[in-house]
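Our working data are protein records whose layout never changes between entries. Instead of coordinates, the fold is spelled out as a row of discrete tokens. Here is such a record, shown just as it appears in the course material:
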Amino acid sequence: MTAQPPLVLDIDGTLTRPDAWGIDPRVFDPLRAWEAPIVLATGKAFPYPIALCHFVGIPELVVGENGGVVYTGEDVIIAGDREGAEAVAREYEAEGYSLGWDGADTVNRWRETELAVRRGRPLEPLERIAAERGLEVVDTGYAYHVKDPTISKGRALEILADEIDLGLSECVAIGDSANDVSTFERVGDSFAVANADEDARRAADEVLDRPHADGALAVLDRFGGGSKRSPR
């Protein structure tokens, strides 16, 4: 049996269910049984992928906040700061717009390097204000992320790989969004699930016929030494 490769996995849109919010529980067992390193690379705030690693039962290797935060299993590396994104948010609100999150805004409460605005909120003023401060807005399909343009999942993955001696050319990545493009550019094999946006589809080595967790599970089946059926 061929050795399993290291994995770099997006979360939202990739390990999730198409008909309901949340992780598809079918991914838990194959991920727990995976013998090679697994990196969760997400736009979510840092505590969310750490918690997912904990509950799945896998070592905590994380790229969070679109590359703003890296966890090596021993050290937290902060690649950006939240100050600029906070300034954009305050100016956006001063112009009469809200970030769109209800209650205590748990989407942003624990972010350290960026802020997220709910999709559907006015985008043009957000992009204008961000550009004036040298920041960018990335649409991940789940939120508009205000971030430093020099930070990306791919760059953070390079930092993590150097810290844990991970060969990126050996890695298999699965994702669904523009924020996964920089990851796809750095790994050996990249897959866009069927629900992926156009940026991810163009950047991937292969676009799957199956969406969300169905696509991810098919890739795991291929590289995990299961039935060897094509993930397409």
User: Anything to note?
Assistant: The first helix runs from residue 28 to 33. Residues 226-232 have pLDDT under 50 and may be disordered. The radius of gyration is 17 Å.
